[in-house]
Specification:
about 0% strand; membrane; about 290 residues; cell inner membrane; MetI-like_sf; flat; mainly alpha; Bicarbonate transport system permease protein CmpB
Amino acid sequence: MSSVTSMERAAPATVPAAPQAATSAPPWREAWRERLEAALRAVVGPLAGFALFVLVWQVVAMRIPEIPTPGVTWQAAAELFSDPFYDNGPNDKGIGWNLLASLQRVGIGFGLAALVGIPVGFAIGRYAPVRAMFSPIVSLLRPVSPLAWLPLGLLLFKAANPAAIWAIFICSIWPMIINTAVGVSRVPQDYLNVARVLNLSEWKVTTKVLLPAVLPYMLTGVRLSIGTAWLVIVAAEMLTGGTGIGFWLWDEWNNLKVEHIVIAIFVIGIVGLILETLLVALARRFTYTEE
């Protein structure tokens, strides 16, 4: 009896077998699942937000009869964009011509601001005497509203179109100057020391050393400038008249076509979003991370 008991005590306890681990999904399936989830987040979120926006718009339009409903606005947009480039004279042009006129003014004013602002920003960031001379002027003039410069442009140029371009120029130049100057000032001193050891000319230092390092800052200034320019041109055209999306919006208000005003708001927002997206993509293309 004792021997049997001792044998029972010595026998190892039976351990239940662990359940077999489930087979993991193939890597390609996991990758496709992650891509599908990312695509759903990218599509479903914006669609839900836009649907909520349209719903709120419909509710507000039902309570305020003067505001057109989304359906009325859609019908007006379909009719408006069926012939966006008609031309019945200087004061009756399609929305396409007015949009192109605004983009042309923005392009000219923005281009002139880039030609002036980027070299000035390089000089301010590179040379301490220039920085001491121009930094107070930039700090003084930068907070001034761009529309405050419009009467001065009308006085100088005696015409509405160059005055609007002047307003675009003056509002676009400050972000370019400031961001370029900040970028130049943050270039590591080691880069400049190597350039000095190699006895590089100032032109080569600017083009081979400073420009690649400053480019992300410069493109940030460009992106901020184009957004500001597109904001200002609408208000400037409301004041100066002629052609342009701002003038067209104000003219539709005088004609009490509220649905066209809503369409103009959407057009201005879509064009601004496109410009912003293109410049963000350009900035990412030329932004490098240190390993």
